[in-house]
Design brief:
Distance between the termini: 42 Å
CATH architecture of the largest domain: 3-Layer(aba) Sandwich
Radius of gyration: 25 Å
CATH superfamily of the largest domain: Crotonobetainyl-coa:carnitine coa-transferase, domain 1
Strand order of the largest sheet: 3-2-1-4-5-6
Structural class: alpha/beta
Strand content: 5-15%
CATH topology of the largest domain: Rossmann fold
CATH class of the largest domain: Alpha Beta
């Protein structure tokens, strides 16, 4: 077992001193607020006691397996996106819960929520309600769909947003199977979370310059569609369109890890020089190097299907180690293809210490992916374990001089 790393003693990130009241859950919003917590923000995760079915709080607490003896409210996905937060449980349907929330809001810079906006209104937590308590609040709502459209207020999950955004149409354009398919990762949730974290920091910058808070809406469908169409709008960028949807180099069934004699490599010669060098190493300098289909970038872009199909016919002739030794000195982009169970032993990821092991007082040993962005002057850090449900309720209520007995 890896040696457990000690938690940092205090926040050193660029958002140190910023306080966020976090009413997000599942993956989208929780991922966003963990990024900000890693960067130093004091994130107070407000969780609901539940209705008696299940255990209450963030539903991700209860997803997945836990080791024998580990509390059930510390599920594996919850652990990966809720460190550096303080968890409090308040019943916002009660006067006591509302009183506590109002006291906390007055000390916060950011109010972040992923509850449907109609639900926030019913609880008296719409933007105008929170602004009345803290006029310069940055109020950020992670919505499924923008409030100006006909889908506004409808429920949204990763599967639905992948379906609505066009993501489910990418694989059909790659392999000819017309059945729409969802990508096997929570890409819509995570991309929306990245948009949300960036939106919060941008709004905080505006506030620091002007003293003005604002309402910020982060709609999943619009964010993910924007993300997808960076490259796949393609010929429809022009009006009228010039041709197809989808960037041909990417919607190409031969764009994949290439099989070698013993495993696979990721390989992408890109410039004219790199392709010339690769053709020479492959023994094609007298054939493909002179083929007009592959003469320059524009020609190759029209014939990537054929070109990538040819590449694998030669990569299979050598081992992965042999290809790395041949191509790396030429600065031809190439990497070993990792399986999930090989990531921790990857020499680069091991050298940069991306995987860290901690000892949770209730869950025992657990792994974390350290904050990947490196701030040299104000480093992000991990200073709090993912919290138990309501672990910090008494601490936070005392901090804001709320009588805990009022909130029972």
């Amino acid at each position: 077992m890896s040696i457990a790393k000690e938690l940092a003693s205090k926040a050193t990130g660029p958002l140190s001193g910023i306080r966020i009241l976090d009413l997000t859950s599942v993956v989208n919003g929780a991922y966003a607020t963990q990024i900000l917590a890693d960067q130093g923000a004091d994130v107070i995760k407000l969780e609901d006691p539940g209705s008696g079915r299940g255990g209450g709080g963030d539903i991700m607490r209860w997803a997945g397996h836990v080791p024998e003896g580990c509390p059930r409210d510390l599920g594996p996905i919850f652990l990966t996106i809720n460190r550096n937060k303080r968890s409090i449980v308040l019943d916002l349907k009660t006067p006591a819960g509302q009183r506590a929330l109002k006291k906390i809001v007055k000390s916060c810079d950011v109010f972040a929520a992923s509850v449907r906006y109609d639900g926030l209104k019913r609880l008296g937590l719409a933007y105008e309600d929170i602004k009345a308590l803290k006029p310069d609040i940055v109020y950020v709502h992670a919505a499924g769909y923008g409030s100006d459209g006909p889908y506004a207020g409808e429920p949204a999950y990763d599967d639905l947003i992948q379906s609505a955004s066009g993501l489910a149409d990418v694989l059909p354009r790659t392999d000819g199977n017309d059945t729409p398919r969802i990508l096997p990762t929570l890409v819509a949730d995570k991309v929306s979370g990245l948009f949300m974290s960036q939106a919060i920091t941008a709004a905080l910058l505006h506030k620091s310059r002007t003293g003005e808070g604002q309402f910020v809406e982060v709609p999943m469908l619009e964010c993910v569609t924007s993300f997808l169409l960076v490259e796949h709008l393609y010929d429809h960028t022009f009006d009228p369109p010039l041709g197809q949807w989808g960037y041909p180099r990417v919607v190409n069934p031969n764009r994949k890890p290439f099989k070698t004699a013993d495993s696979y490599i990721g390989l992408l010669p890109y410039t004219d020089k790199q392709w010339d060098q690769f053709f020479e190493v492959a023994g094609w300098s007298d054939s493909l190097a002179k083929d007009p289909r592959f003469a320059d970038y524009a020609a190759r872009a029209k014939h990537t299907h054929e070109l990538y199909g040819l590449v694998e016919t030669v990569t299979e002739t050598k081992t992965t180690g042999e290809w790395l030794a041949l191509l790396k000195p030429l600065s031809i982009p190439v990497v070993r293809t990792n399986r999930l169970d090989e990531l921790e032993s990857d020499p680069h990821l091991a050298a940069v210490g991306l995987f860290e092991t901690y000892e949770h007082p209730d869950a025992g040993g657990y792994k974390q992916i350290r904050p990947p962005v490196k701030f040299y002057a104000t480093p992000s850090n991990i200073r709090r374990h993912p919290p138990r449900l309501g672990q910090h309720t008494e601490e936070v209520l005392a901090e804001f001089e709320v009588d805990a007995s009022e909130d029972t």
